[in-house]
Amino acid sequence: MIAGRSAALRSWFLALVFLEMLLACGSACRAGTQDSTATTPPPRPATPSARSGEEQDRFELGIGAVQGFFDVTGSFAYRRFLNERGPFERSAMGELTGTTKSQLSEGIVSLYVFFRPIATYRQSWRIRPLIEFGPGVHTVVQVASLEGFNRSSYKAKLYVKSHAYAGFEVLATKRLGFLVRGRMSAPSHHPFDYAQAAILLR
Q: CA angle, 21 as apex, 17 and 25 as ends, to 5°?
């Protein structure tokens, strides 16, 4: 008798489980049909620029202590704001740098794309943290004066690197500011890292 009741209870339990599975499958099928017929919203485009003129672009005139053979480098750059997409603002920059030591001189032409987290600063701030990263393409030209031969040797190479920057900006006026930052690069087969101070002309 007890065995019969146990078998009956098991049968009722299995029937309930099977019924719940059928109901769950029916709900999932209906949800899938609704999702497939729903209109998918178009992808969010990049936020168009709504910045004032001094926030759109700027020139940077800087000097820095570099890692490697050279001691100090000078730089001149033009930076342009592109857009905001997701959690980042994107900018492009072209830069000329030059340095010399002993009989060796080096000049670099660089192009960058930067990604800066929007949440790290506000445009209304006069002192802004600077945290950004991105790829850079560098054309490096080295000129070596051969001592005793009255002639020079030239060498040029192309490098593609990833860079990360950290520092801060100080905006003295709408048109003038100052920048202090450090840079780390990868790979490290040619040292590009520096600590830099620059004047911003916006």
A: 175
